[in-house]
Amino acid sequence: MICGSIGRVFGLLCSITIVATAVARADEASNDRVIAEKTEIIAADATNAVAYELRGEAYYIKHDWNRAFEDCSAAIRIDPNFGRAYHCRGRAYSAKGDREHAMIDYNEAIRLDPNYGASYTSRAEAYFSRGDFDRAIAGFTEAIERSPKQAYRALVMRGEVYAAKGDTDHAVADYSEAMQRNPAAAWPYELRSTVRLNKGEIDAALDDCDSAVRLEPGSAGGHYCRAMVFLKKDDADSTIRELDDVTRIRPSFEKAYLVRGVVLHGKGDDKRALADFDELIRLRPGNSEAYSSRAGLFRDMGQHDRALADYNEAIRLDPKSQLALVNRALLYMMMSDAKHARADFNSVLALPLSDKWAVDTAREGLGFVK
User: Fold this and answer.
1) Contact 180, 147 (CB under 8 A)
2) Is the pLDDT confidence value at 12 over 80?
3) How far apart, in whole angstroms, are the C-alpha atoms of residue 24 and residue 30?
4) How far apart (Å, rounded) are the C-alpha atoms in residues 162 and 261?
5) What sign does the dihedral 147-153-157-158 (CA atoms) show?
6) What is the pTM of this model?
7) Could you give the C-alpha distances from 74 to 46, 58, 249, in angstroms and in order?
């Protein structure tokens, strides 16, 4: 059993959900053209607020948050009543982690231009990101009502909020309506599959993933979707095959390396598993889970010193990780270091409950530490 036997060791939750992030699928060359065109316009007319705003939007799509912020701010300095520029800067604030100023800009954008629907969607997403589900639902509903152009995205995002609240019926209803609004999009199928998978509707979940792959065969999302279903079915070979497609299509897809590494280790292919964990750490050096996962592999390979080094790094990056702490305690037990094992078990129990398996294991472990 993939989930039952090794899932907890590596921190891979078997009730896996596809993280619902808005993946920008805009043509990279198109954004570069916009930037080049608007740069020429700005060179000829440094007071053109619209050119700054449009270039800022292009930089935002390219994840160049600082340049996006600078251009959107320039547009506001030139035209303080330009509502769309406040929306543009609000998104840059949000991407930079400044939620407070992002919300101020979204509110100003809506005040200045109440018919620009994107501001309502972005404000609702800000509510969602801080866990204010009711305001997020109200915000997405307002976006749907005010702007037909925003209806598809707002429906998908409102479905995510409902899913986060555990209201699966409303979530499925929103995803299904989003499919009608945009029949060529794979994203709502991927998300509906997650809900169905968590409800145990495995065949229906796989049907949704298949639809996602059919609609967007060149996208990694549908293949990752199928991988999660096959993982739930304990079909290791099919899981690996789908994740191979994911990493081929999108080499930076971090979760794919984590899941594939776990499954490969379960099959005894530790060489490939280690390569996946190494790549995950290269892609995200600050990912505590990546170090914890590689530590579990080293532990099972009998390389206790390397395992301990990785657990130490995982806990340095996330001192409140009950899973990393309890696994380090188990490693200390294997190394006959009762003092440090006891300290880690007690640290797990001193933290607020975030992982029941870790807490139960810590309590049980204390009964065996001499």
Assistant:
1) no
2) no
3) 12
4) 31
5) positive
6) 0.80
7) 10, 15, 37
